Amino acid sequence: MLVAIVLLALEPFFAPYIKIDVTIVSAALLFAIAAMSANLLLGYTGLPPFGNAAFFGLGAYGCGLSLKYLNVHFITATLFGMLAALLGALIVAPFLVRRRGIYFGLLSIAFGQVFYFIAYRFTSVTGGEDGMSVPRPYLVFSSFTLKETAFYYLSLVVFVISLLAFKLIVQSPFGRTLVAIRQNELRVRYLGLDSNRFVFVAILISAGFAGLSGALSAMLNGFIAPLSLDWHQSGDFVLATILGGSGTVWGPLIGSLIYEIGRDIISTITPYWQIFLGALFVACVLGFPRGILGTILARVGAAPLSNEPEEANWTQSPAIAADHRG
Amino acid sequence: MLEHAGPQIFNGLVLGAFYAIVAIGLSLIMNLTGTINMAHGSFMTLAGYLAFTMIARGTNFWFAFVAAPIIAVLVAVIVERTLIRPLYGRDPVYSLLLTFGLSLIAEEVFHVIWGANTLPFAPPASLSGTLALGFMNFPVYRLFIVVVLVLAFAALALFLYYTRFGLRLRAAVQDTEMIAALGTNTQLLYTINFGLGILLAGIAGVLAVGLLGLNPTTGNTLLMPAFVTVIIGGMGSLYGSIVGGILIGLATSLMTLYVPAASEVVIYVLMAIVLTIRPRGLFGEEGLFG
């Protein structure tokens, strides 16, 4: 773990040699935070999160708007972004908590789209389709904005903190309960735990991570467009998670690095990045559904949390299935 | 303002019928195999482009109208057999991601072959023009769309409820293992069911070309309302999809008239209201995916 962080910390120094720009790695680190947010729901709780881009985008707009209109410090703006994402989650989560499996996926896509259309249509505030620009952040004086390398280290620090927080969460009794919900929700309920409440909190935490990622990404790009709230974006988060290994702590980072660096390289060669992305989806699903890290861990015998429990929790426990039908 | 409401209500009904037919196709596939087919819109667009190309090469409209959806179904059957089949019985997130990837590829391929611009498409002379209904003039093409979609609904209902195959299909939704044990080839059932869903999508796709224009994302713009239709109508209900589709079709077109900015968001608000009152949708059935 330390090795990976040290390697990442040294990246700016060997960036010119391996021709991978720090901005790309910054983007990957921030993307990884959003992928972690998807991972909490997908890999641990067993729910397909296809609306996390909404929280990501709320974080971005929350941060961008507070920087633009309130002229606050970027740390405050980031907190505003996370707050916006949490508020969004508070509205949506009550509809989502009672559902599992494909119904959860469907609802998360549909509710996520609401925020996309609001951003798209609310032109006077968000700039609509044209997007809005975000001023570059500064640490102390407004004349000293953070340059690429400084922002890279900021992203790295935030990423490491997020990773540690994520690790603490999934290893805590709370995180264990989420895994238990994925494996056998009925048993969790028989033990007297209100599983819906755990799912509710998981959605909020997930939204917080996504909002954090969105806020920093907005500052990194200096720009926000409504498309960052679209469900395609949510799909990319899920892809990065599965590509790296869902249900593993480091998987989302691996997936995000491949996603961002791959996009950077392929975009310079051909204009058809989207075809490659689509092919990556297909290959990942059919070829290595456990993801890169998941496959490696399975090889060495340290079986990771499989995303496919032996008993698919929501189809074969009739009582819960009945309950979730409402 | 009110004098415009009449035509908008008719437009809403047409739009609603579209949403319904796409939603039924999605719903068929979702109920039997637990696959959320994100590539559904791509098959619609494919059928649209195929029809466009055939007509541009001088083919008769009616031939193209029948042939394009069938070709789309053939492509869909190949895709189902090779790519989607290995994912049955696995976590639904995988088939969702796979079909999502397929839709990304398809969109870019359409882009490369037919370009990004919206292509012009004129319905044949027999279907253009308007029909005077006394209180309003109604385009014949829209009427044609309504007739075709109503016929498609009727045919589907007859197929599902009055044929042995339809019976097997409905039984398989309830209990796939049992129907397999009783000697039905469930793999074949899945394939035919998938093809059936895509057939509906293909018909809608060709019809949509004359109504919404044709560009690489035509089908995908109908996909999201179709999801909402499934949620509002209740998963697994044919009639629910029709009612849900018409409901959101009307809501969309009336909002377009009165509050254009809210025309997209209104269907999600409607969805939230329905889910608050009836968590499993208006006609959600027991015994299906929950």
What report would you give on this structure?
The complex is a heterodimer of chains A (326) and B (290). With 326 residues, chain A is mainly alpha-helical. Chain A has helices at residues 2-18, 22-45, 52-70, 74-96, 101-121, 123-126, 148-171, 173-190, 195-221, 231-244, 251-269, 273-287, 291-299, 313-316, 318-324, and strands at residues 132-133, 223-224. Chain A has one domain (2-324). Chain A has 15 helices and two strands. Chain B has eleven helices and two strands. In chain B, β1 (130-132) and β2 form a beta hairpin. In chain B, α2 packs across α8. The radius of gyration of chain B is 19 Å and the shape is globular. At the A-B interface, α5, α10, α12 and α15 of A face α4, α9 and α11 of B.
Question: What are the SSEs and their pairings?
Answer:
The complex is a heterodimer of chains A (326) and B (290).
Chain A: H1 2-18, H2 22-45, H3 52-70, H4 74-96, H5 101-121, H6 123-126, E1 132-133, H7 148-171, H8 173-190, H9 195-221, E2 223-224, H10 231-244, H11 251-269, H12 273-287, H13 291-299, H14 313-316, H15 318-324
Antiparallel strand pairs in A: 1-2
Helix pairs in contact in A: 1-7, 2-7, 2-9, 2-10, 2-11, 3-4, 3-5, 3-9, 4-9, 7-8, 8-9, 10-11, 10-13
Chain B: H1 2-33, H2 40-56, H3 61-84, H4 92-114, E1 130-132, E2 137-139, H5 140-162, H6 164-174, H7 176-181, H8 186-212, H9 218-233, H10 238-258, H11 265-277
Helix pairs in contact in B: 1-5, 1-8, 1-9, 1-10, 2-3, 2-4, 2-8, 2-9, 3-8, 5-6, 5-8, 9-10, 9-11
